Amino acid sequence: MENSGINRIEKLSFPWQTQDPFLFCVHHEDFFPKGNKDLGPAASLEGRMIGQDFTIKDGWRMYHGNKVPGFPAHPHCGFETVTAVRKGLVDHSDSLGAAGRFGNGDVQWMTAGKGVQHSEMFPLLKENEENPLELFQIWLNLPRDSKKVEPHFAMLWKETIPIHQHKDANGKSTEIEVMAGKVGDETAPKPAPDSWAANPENEVAIWHIKMEAGAEFTLPTSENKVNRNLYFFKGKDFKLNDTDLPHYHGAYLDSRADIKLKNGEEEARLLLLQGKPINEPVVQHGPFVLNYPAEVRETIMEFQKTEFGGWPWPSYENVHDKNKGRFAIHADGREEIKD
């Protein structure tokens, strides 16, 4: 398998395993019911472990939410979250007073840096129909010289994310949403400024790949040998060159090898993560990612003392007005209104 450019194939767990510079990736897919007046599910919560509901029941989970599914206020330090929302919406609130609602193709790129609290709630706005949600949250590490930068987030609105279009010799199509990196003539929007991905030499790529049934596509090679992971999460009968890639499996690839993606009889969806490794020590304690244990202890003490600025919102699981569309308010007061 090594000679084919495919180093390893493994079944995906929760969360998905990644390679440096990434820490991990989580794929959330929930088929939420109709919403109620509080933007939570119009369904009984009986039988759920409220506050710690990660078991799929009736097709969905509440996660850490009590009334609204999602993740109430929690801290991060020393890394970045890239939240790519395929379906549904996310309400963001943070300890800097910044906020937003994004989804249905949008991406939020948040640098936690020296420390921030934020909440990520999933408001169920539709009362007359179901509220499906699908998203990826990708944790991208920061190098030592960027671990204490000021917190920041960038919005990569769906309208700004380019799509590389390819048709093979049989006219079958492959589409690649370029959330980071470059494919052909399509270059992703700029990430957060202190990100490892902000330097093109690090060859960070985050691509969502959609392939028509029967389509073939050869992955572009990287300039240097970097870590590359490919995750096959929807479809069937998929091959990498002549090697089977079973459904809900991931492959560790040689980024300089020619790898042909060969899709089977159903539409396929894949996620590709790639980047030059940071090659520094990683010590992770929950939401804190530093280089050495002493730094983690210092960060925990700092959070206990400062709460990274406190919590300026009326609820730890803050949601925004039901009538609001997609928007972002940044810590410096800059506003982005999309709809």
From TrEMBL:
Organism from which the protein derives: Marivirga tractuosa (strain ATCC 23168 / DSM 4126 / NBRC 15989 / NCIMB 1408 / VKM B-1430 / H-43)
Keywords in alphabetical order: Iron, Metal-binding
Binding of Fe cation, residues: 74, 76, 118, 120
Protein's name in the database: Pirin domain protein
Annotated ranges, domain Pirin N-terminal: 63-140
GO molecular function terms attached to this record: metal ion binding
Family recorded in the similarity comment: Belongs to the pirin family.
All copies of domain Pirin C-terminal, residue ranges: 207-309
Domain of life: Bacteria
Gene3D superfamilies given in the database record: Jelly Rolls (2.60.120.10)
Cofactor binding mode and count: Binds 1 Fe cation per subunit.
Keyword Metal-binding: yes
Pfam families found in the cross-reference section: Pirin (PF02678), Pirin_C (PF05726)
Needed cofactors: Fe cation
